[in-house]
Design brief:
Elements (H helix, E strand, L loop, with lengths): L3 E2 H7 L22 E6 L2 E6 L2 H9 L8 E2 L3 H5 L23 H11 L3 H24 L7 H8 L19 H6 L14 H18 L4 H10 L1 H11 L4 H4 L7 H18 L17 E6 L5 H8 L3 H7 L15 E6 L3 H9 L11 E7 L6 H7 L4 H7 L12 E7 L3 H14 L5 E8 L6 H7 L4 H8 L12 E9 L4
Antiparallel strand pairs: 1-4, 2-3, 5-6, 7-8, 9-10
Helix pairs in contact: 4-12, 5-6, 5-8, 6-12, 8-9, 9-10, 9-12, 13-14, 13-15, 16-17, 19-20
Length: 489
């Protein structure tokens, strides 16, 4: 009887028959029998080695122990041999958990290259999970959908994607507004952990119904959009998420989305088991809600509560400015738990006309071709982060031609004016500024005049509110010198 060697059969059978593919691969997926890990930034690539090594590793025995057999029936059986990962004992969950090669890949990734990032996610998780689970339960949704927010934003209310998705649930502007989230120059409720969770629960409920109560398809729809998943279902004539990932239509991000969600849920439920025993969890967020009768600075609120302004900002990330919005009576503001009574007493002591003082004005600026956030920030004496946050700009957002809202400090100018007036009263014979003017002639430029009057072109530009590269109009009078002459009276 001819001997059938399992090893030879394994060499002849296509690797795809064993069910081993790169997470999120498409078409001719990369085989990943016996992975060799290559780290490049945050990505981990898997390279196949020899098939016999892969078979021995999958079976859990060394290559030397692969047995021979005289039974010809096993020769045919290898054609249908479906190599699976060892059974993993999964934690209890109200969403279906699966452990396969793709989920295993992301579990290993979070344990290795993604360890620090996942530890931060876990640290923030306890701050928001109790509140989010309460909302999901109230909406009739599985509580473990909170781990969708984990992979979307790491539970960061101020998270901003390159596609300008915002908040812990990463809503795009259109979707957020469709689920009753207010988004305007004063408020962005996509950043409100409570309101955005309500919106996410309602959106997920619709997706769940749309995809015949399949949470994997619903999650994929949350990532790629429901129409993308519906087209994939029609294209491949399948409602199995894992089957849809075998084709090339869905993007890698969507193919990875469900296994990443499952890996995050498995680890977060038993962190110590996966190497996250020493995470320092932030305390659960707790707050009182008070109604603000008229526009009020957050600094006034903070003083009334006896806390820092940053504490009030952290509790109200939906506020885009350091004030409650105008024309919004009885705005519901979150303040530290247990401070409501103190706030009411102290706030009542502040006259209504002193609760808000205009310290910042906001101007509109159309970005030019060569503008960068850093350059615009320097021009207006603010920070790139402030401009990006105020205008919901991602790291790759295009600026050219975009009209931006820019905060400009005005408080500093008022004391200076007051001091100047006082100085004039005390010293009536103070110095006077005398300007020297020049009538522009044909052919004059800022640079030629700067050289002629011994100043820089930038100073001439500032004195006359001119752009550096603008053509000068003949006949126009401009300042070319400023002299200080003391009154000798």
């Amino acid at each position: 009887m001819t001997k059938a060697i399992i090893l030879i059969a394994a060499l002849l059978v296509p690797c795809t028959a064993f069910g081993f593919k790169l997470p999120g691969g498409s078409g001719a997926d990369h085989q990943y029998l016996a992975e060799t890990r290559h780290e490049a930034g945050d990505r981990v690539m898997l390279a196949a080695t020899t098939p016999e090594a892969g078979l021995s590793r999958a079976l859990g025995i060394p290559p030397s122990e692969i047995a021979e057999t005289d039974d010809p029936s096993l020769e045919a059986a290898t054609d249908a041999f479906d190599l699976k990962l060892p059974e993993e004992e999964l934690p209890d969950s109200d969403i279906p958990l699966t452990f396969n090669s793709k989920v295993s890949y992301f579990i290993r990734y979070f344990q290795d290259s993604g360890h620090n990032a996942f530890a931060k996610w876990l640290s923030r998780s306890e701050r928001y999970i109790p509140m989010m689970k309460s909302v999901l339960k109230k909406e009739g949704m599985p509580e473990d959908l909170v781990y969708l927010a984990m992979i979307e934003s790491g539970f960061s209310p101020r998270a901003l994607s390159v596609a300008s998705a915002v908040g812990p649930w990463q809503f795009m502007s259109g979707t957020g507004k469709a689920y009753s989230l207010r988004i305007d120059p004063w408020i962005d409720e996509r950043r409100d952990p409570l309101k955005s969770t309500v919106a996410a629960a309602r959106y997920l409920k619709e997706l769940y119904g749309m995809f015949n109560k399949d949470w994997y398809l619903a999650a994929a729809g949350y990532n790629a959009g429901e129409n993308k998943i519906l087209r994939a279902i029609n294209m491949y004539n399948s409602r199995d998420f894992w089957e849809l990932t075998k084709g090339g239509y869905l993007k890698r991000e969507t193919k990875d989305y469900v296994p990443k969600l499952l890996a995050a849920a498995i680890i977060a439920k038993e962190p110590a088991k996966y190497g996250f025993a020493d995470v320092a969890y932030l305390p659960t967020i707790e707050f009182d809600v008070v109604k603000i009768p008229s526009r009020t600075d957050l600094e006034v609120v903070a003083k009334a509560c006896g806390v820092s302004t940053q504490t009030i900002r952290d509790l109200n990330p939906e506020l885009r400015r350091l004030t409650t919005p105008p024309n919004y009576p009885d705005y519901e503001l979150k303040i530290p738990n247990g401070t409501a009574a103190l706030f009411q007493v102290e706030y009542a002591k502040v006259p209504e006309n002193e609760r808000f003082k205009e310290t910042v004005t906001h101007v509109r600026y159309r970005a030019k071709r060569s503008d960068t956030l850093a350059a615009i920030a320097r021009r207006f004496n603010t920070t790139p982060q402030t401009i990006a946050e105020l205008n919901s700009l991602g790291k790759k957002s295009k600026l050219r031609g975009r009209v931006l809202t820019i905060p400009v400090q005005i408080a500093a100018a008022e004391p200076e004016k007051a001091a100047a007036k006082a100085e004039v009263k005390e010293q009536p014979k103070a110095a006077e500024v005398q300007n020297k003017y020049y009538i522009i002639k044909k052919g004059d430029t800022l640079f030629s005049l700067a050289k002629r009057f011994n100043v820089t072109a930038r100073i001439l530009s500032a004195w006359n509110n001119l752009k550096m590269r603008v053509a000068l109009k003949p006949g126009k009078r401009i300042i070319v010198a400023k002299n200080v002459a003391k009154d000798e009276g």
